[in-house]
Specification:
Chains A, B: GO terms for molecular function: DNA-binding transcription factor activity; transcription cis-regulatory region binding. Chains A, B: It comes from Leifsonia shinshuensis. Chains A, B: Keywords: DNA-binding, Transcription, Transcription regulation. Two copies of one chain form a homodimer. Chain A has 340 residues and is α/β, with parallel strands linked by helices. Chain A has three domains: 45 residues; 122 residues, Rossmann fold (3-Layer(aba) Sandwich); 132 residues, Rossmann fold, CATH 3.40.50.2300. In chain A, the strands form two sheets. A six-stranded parallel beta sheet of chain A has the order 2-1-3-4-5-11, covered by helices on one side. In chain A, helix 8 links the parallel strand 6 and strand 7. The N and C termini of chain A lie far apart (80 Å). The relative contact order of chain A is 0.12. At the A-B interface, helix 4, strand 2, helix 5 and helix 11 of A face helix 4, strand 2, helix 5 and helix 11 of B. Strand 2 of chain A pairs antiparallel with strand 2 of chain B, so a sheet runs across the interface.
């Protein structure tokens, strides 16, 4: 029932079994993520696999193999765009998408990695979340390439990652408002522990500085990337006597929330206040007024990540850290400031 | 390398190999969807497997096994809701979702079925599309249960299927408008080859008949389930001198298109014309005015389909044909007719 890989790597596995004082079948169980091995033995074998520089060399799988995608959750439009991109390239390559959602966790758990090892996917794509060093090592030992789409934190330099030009996007959104004549421009940002949030705010501040305008801390709000948080921060900013004439938002959902707040306060968008989103997910164009936003090419990012992962199987690539360009999409939620 | 199943079924496979005059390894290849078998041999072995009443009896797989979901495409909100429902139950059961999109095809192709057999999923869920008799037989031989969510056509009675009460939904939508005082109520329907479209129109006609009103053929339009088709049919219906005061639509996207048409013609929704959708996908609540619609419990349907499929592994269930209830969601796109 055990399946030691055929060919050149067999001697290595024999040696590892000997050094670990276990059977070859036990090494095979560890390698393939199968149960029936105690945790200490599993850890010892993993370490020996790593130290020996073992990496499974196998033929490319037949059609029907799996590309594993881990998304944060399935509720956001954001995740749906990522799924669409990964699915397209996966299908074109003759593979099938295996989809996991993290739910409330920030990183895939132990169950997940055992499942992955037993399913033997051709590649792993992670939205947003990072893998622990241990999980990265386990995937490398099995020669399973992985790529992160839009990394949340600051992944180690050897982790392939595909992002978007968030900082440049923040500049573009703010310059658009400056060009329309706005001078009191507020910002509602996303969670500060996410690199993309910080980069967008940085772009906003830089565009203001370029125009010789201060970034007024009283005009800065923030929260989760949700419509509810956008509405709360929108109400706070727009309820001020010296309210801003424009608001740059961390994402589209926040921007929709800011518009909700404006309407609730009896303000017109864009007559009284201009609003800019970020992402260009579907609700941005469905909104009324349709939302001016910075398009993040989410599907394309997911496609590039998947292609990169599939190519990594064939050897190292030169560029596994990329940022794809964002672009301004002007719709109906921005206009010159009201004349006073 | 061949993996004949252990235990009681082994003699059956030996007998099949003998009768087909092939090796046991060849039978195993056919059973597990592996290549290296000629098409005629594969067909002969499939037939013998079926005739012998063979059905693989295996232990429940460990955590990490796959539930296969086939959706029409990933572009519609509709599919996304189905994915969410199947993913949730799959995850809770300790399995992982394998996602395929049909793209332009109406049925999964030969590549798909070989892939499924080699991946050995614990269950298969199909959105909308039906399997060929041959594919159904192959899955049954491997004891892989399958369930259709919202069947498009009229599947054979032994195919488990979970739908929604489309006819009752059509009645509810139309009664809501009758109760508001409307008498000239138009319908924009979906493709007539889909059972769900026909059932919804049937419900509309029945509610009108109940109220003693004729179903005026001049007030009936139809097309694909798209926003563009909704706009085209909306323009045609609302451009009439004796335009309807309300329109019942085949789905939410058509309803958004009808609203686009109304606005383009300078009409107010719901002041001049009331609009009702069907499905209650996310854009219905994002629209302005927010759309009154008939909620189809898509996620719940997908969840019930997945639970049914997983339970089918343990033996036959009594009820594998269910329609879940639809319900009216009243928002801002319906009001009494304008006074003339």
């Amino acid at each position: 029932m055990s399946e030691p890989p055929a060919g050149p790597s067999r001697p290595t596995l024999d040696a590892i079994a000997q050094r670990a004082a276990v059977s070859l079948s036990t090494v095979s169980k560890v390698l393939n993520g199968r149960p029936g091995v105690s945790a200490p033995t599993r850890a010892r074998v993993e370490e020996l696999l790593h130290d020996s520089g073992y990496a499974r060399r196998g033929a490319l799988p037949e059609r029907g193999g799996l590309v594993e995608l881990v998304v944060a959750d399935l509720l956001s439009e954001w995740s749906v765009e990522i799924i669409r991109g990964v699915e397209r390239i996966t299908r074109e390559a003759g593979f099938v998408l295996a989809l996991s959602a993290l739910g409330d966790h920030l990183e895939p758990g132990g169950d997940w990695i055992s499942g992955v090892l037993s399913r033997k996917p051709v590649a792993v794509i992670l939205q947003f979340s990072n893998l622990t060093a241990e999980h990265r090592q386990r995937l490398r030992t099995r020669n399973i390439p992985f790529v992160v789409v839009d990394p949340a934190g600051d992944p180690p330099p050897d982790v392939p990652a595909i992002g978007a030009t968030n900082w440049a996007g923040g500049v573009t959104a703010t310059r658009h408002l400056l060009d329309l004549g706005h001078e009191r421009i507020a910002v509602v940002s996303g969670p500060p522990d996410l690199m993309c949030s910080r980069a967008r705010v940085g772009g906003y501040q830089s565009a203001l500085a370029e125009a010789g305008l201060p970034a007024d801390p009283a005009l800065a709000g923030g929260g989760e990337f949700s419509r509810a948080d956008g509405e709360r921060e929108g109400r706070r900013l727009l309820d001020r006597a010296d309210r801003p004439t424009a608001i740059v938002c961390g994402n589209d959902l926040q921007a929709l929330g800011v518009m909700d707040a404006a309407f609730a306060l009896g303000l017109d968008v864009p007559g009284d206040v201009s609003v800019v989103g970020f992402d260009d997910v579907a609700p941005a164009s469905w909104a009324r007024p349709a939302l001016t936003t910075v398009r993040q090419p989410l599907q394309e990012m997911a496609e590039v990540a998947t292609r990169t992962a599939l190519r990594l199987r064939d050897g190292d690539l030169e560029n596994t850290r990329l940022e794809l360009a964002t672009s301004l999409v002007v719709r109906d939620s921005t206009a010159p400031p009201p004349t006073r």
